[in-house]
Design a protein that fits this description.
The complex is a heterodimer. By secondary structure, chain A is mainly alpha-helical. Chain A contains six helices and four strands. Chain A has a two-stranded antiparallel ribbon with strand order 2-3. In chain A, helix 3 crosses helix 6 and helix 5 crosses helix 6. The radius of gyration of chain A is 21 Å and the shape is globular. Chain B contains nine helices and 26 strands. In chain B, strand 20 and strand 21 form a beta hairpin. The two termini of chain B are 36 Å apart. Chain B has a domain of 169 residues: Oxidoreductase, molybdopterin-binding domain (Sulfite Oxidase, Chain A, domain 2, Alpha-Beta Complex), CATH 3.90.420. In chain B, strands 7-6-15-10-11 form a five-stranded mixed β-sheet. By secondary structure, chain B is α+β, with helices and mostly antiparallel strands. The chains are: A mainly alpha, B alpha+beta. At the A-B interface, helix 1, strand 1, helix 5 and strand 4 of A face strand 6, strand 7, helix 6, strand 15 and helix 8 of B.
């Protein structure tokens, strides 16, 4: 009795891997230049960070105007959205609020997420300078960078996040 | 009359009652139904049997008597935060979740996508960036498979130090199972020509937060699919219309909906959701990163919280079991809080990374019992007992809001206590 299981059958259809896969070839060619407006992924080493810069002083009024209605004055949080300042110790229980300062492993995540998803009601409406300024404002509030630091494509990846080494890869064999 | 051997305490019966067919099953049931049948009233034609019924609709909806069978909503007024809709497991049977009742979590509402204008681009570390339309993808050879999708935060109320009195829907409603049809991602990646140095890809949606996740290329070349259909019809809007990534067995958030972009990269992007939300905190202060897998799990749906048993007699205990690793191999059921166990019947076909319905015949004697299920998968993984699980993963200090996600990836047991009145409560045992 050796009925092929569906997975084995699929493997036969596809060959042993992607290299063997048959494709009708209906994908249209496109250039990276034409994809650029959608290509908003930032990697931890800074790949993808755009030109532009910002400081905490520039970020404060932008935060007050566009973010504080949910995240609260001084990023202290409201019932609608979590606080973005503060770093409760991670040993305080499994439900401890994970913040930028106590948890995030990489600084670039902040630029990537703010630019793609914020403000909630108007995502991708901020200029790159505004995003850099907001990152500078939040990082300075959390004492991750000096008050007057200029955040740009060069400086942002260098910010060392306190919890960088706080992680265990769950299933290394799956990566 | 065939005799039924108990297989475990408090009335659990031999599962072969089902495998031997209806004669045997009838024997188990009739002993408790004859008394009532003898006092029944003479039959009469009901009004609906004596008049012409309603017109036939173009799209069917359930009977008006099934109105309670709905998803529960965390954010019905679409306030500026995410929205959850949970599947009513305690009111469903079988292994297929109706598309209309499939759970959803959306992080910026449901986009109203015109399929004629939607595009999927594959780029980054590839030989040739390419772009697809719904129409061009629909011409590819397709595959269909059953697969569950489960939120990494499903069952989060189970981290409470006290059992939260809530339905299977409220506790476990962020998992559903469907037949998905679409194009193997490996075919599309091959067409673009993957650079051997690529190790990950970013998948991104066309929803307002452009939700993105980093996914190991290994999974993309394994059983990943760009899904276009759900249970035979186009995807529901809340499930990713017109196309979504399906990563069988991996946490729901990675199965990116409204899929519009795949970028091959050599390192994970450390997006918000992998960096923060789905990296779960452990009791010592460290956190798991790249959990991905939805591990072996089961829970009893019948009977469960909110049900009331109408007196002693025969009932079927049933529930769902699933594992992100593969097929379910075995489900044991207990009616005495885990002291004795009997093996449940598994409804065929038992498919990998999909719901498997388990069933156990049960003759309730009317005394209090505690029902539990425990599943094993074909790789030998077993659902951890609660004490083991809590020792490793911890509990919250106080009972959390049942809609909150204090932690992730709960896959331990669920226990339902049936009291002498037949009411079902949630307990830890």
């Amino acid at each position: 009795m050796s009925m092929l299981r569906p997975a084995a059958l699929l493997a036969l259809v596809l060959g042993s891997g992607a290299a063997m896969a048959q494709s009708p070839g209906l994908g249209a060619k496109i250039t990276e230049a034409d994809i650029a407006p959608w290509d908003i992924s930032i990697l931890p080493d800074g790949t993808g960070l755009p030109a532009g810069s910002g400081t905490a002083a520039q970020g404060a009024p932008i935060f007050a105007a566009k973010c504080a209605m949910c995240h609260g004055e001084g990023a202290k949080g409201t019932p609608a959205a979590a606080a973005l300042v503060g770093a409760p110790p991670l040993t305080g229980g499994i439900e401890t609020t994970k913040t930028i300062a106590n948890f995030w492993g990489y600084s670039t995540t902040a630029f990537d997420f703010i630019r793609r998803a914020m403000p909630f009601q108007a995502p991708r409406s901020l200029t790159n300078d505004e995003v850099y300024a907001l990152v500078a404002y939040l990082f300075a509030l959390n004492k991750l960078i000096p008050e007057n630091e200029v955040v740009n494509a060069k400086t942002l990846p260098l910010v060392k996040m306190p919890n960088r080494d706080g992680f265990i890869i769950r299933f290394p064999e799956r990566i | 009359m065939e005799k039924f051997e108990p297989v475990a305490a408090n009335g659990l019966l031999d599962r072969r009652a089902f495998l031997r067919g209806s004669t045997a099953l009838a024997a188990a049931v009739t002993g408790y139904t004859l008394t009532k049948a003898a006092s029944a009233e003479p039959l009469a034609d009901a009004p609906w049997s004596r008049e012409i019924g309603s017109a036939t609709p173009s799209v069917q909806t359930p009977s008006r008597f099934e109105k309670p069978v709905v998803r529960t909503l965390s954010n019905p007024n679409n306030e500026p935060r995410n929205s959850h809709a949970r599947t009513p497991h305690q009111l469903l049977q079988g292994t297929v979740t109706p598309a209309s009742l499939h759970f959803t979590i959306n992080h910026g509402g449901i986009p109203d996508i015109d399929p004629g204008q939607h595009k999927l681009v594959i780029h980054g570390m590839v030989r040739q960036p390419i772009v697809f339309t719904v129409e061009s993808l629909s011409r590819y050879p397709m595959v269909s498979r059953m697969a569950f999708v489960e939120c990494g935060g499903n069952s989060a109320p189970m981290f409470s130090p006290e059992p939260i009195q809530a339905t299977a829907q409220a506790l476990h409603g962020l998992v559903s199972s469907s037949e998905w049809t679409g194009v193997p991602l490996a075919v599309l990646l091959d067409e673009a020509g993957v650079d051997p140095k690529a190790k990950w890809f970013v998948a991104e949606g066309a929803d307002s937060p452009a939700l993105s996740r980093s996914i190991p290329l290994k999974k993309g070349l394994d059983d990943a699919m760009v899904a276009l259909y759900q249970n035979g019809e186009r995807l529901m809007p809340g499930n990713g219309y017109p196309m979504r990534l399906l990563l069988p067995g991996y946490e729901g958030n990675m199965n990116v909906k409204f899929l519009r972009r795949i970028k091959l990269i050599d390192q994970p992007a450390m997006s918000y959701y992998e960096s923060r939300t789905y990296s779960q905190l452990l009791p010592g202060g460290k956190a798991y990163r790249f959990y991905f897998l939805q591990e072996v799990k089961s829970f009893i749906t019948h009977p469960s919280f909110g049900h009331a048993l109408k007196g002693p007699g025969f009932y079927e205990i049933s529930g769902v079991a699933y594992s992100g690793t593969g097929r379910i191999a075995k489900v044991l059921v207990s009616a005495d809080g885990g002291k004795s166990w009997g093996e449940a019947a598994l409804q065929e076909p038992v498919l990998p990374k999909a719901f498997t319905r388990f069933r156990m015949p049960w003759r309730w004697d009317g005394r209090p019992v505690i029902l539990q299920s425990r599943a094993w998968d074909e790789a030998g993984n077993v659902q951890p007992l609660r004490a083991e699980f809590v020792a490793q993963r911890g509990e919250t200090k106080k009972p959390p809001n049942p809609l909150a996600f204090p932690n992730q990836h709960y896959n331990s047991l669920t226990s339902w206590a049936v009291d002498a009145k037949g009411e079902v409560k949630h307990v830890y045992a």
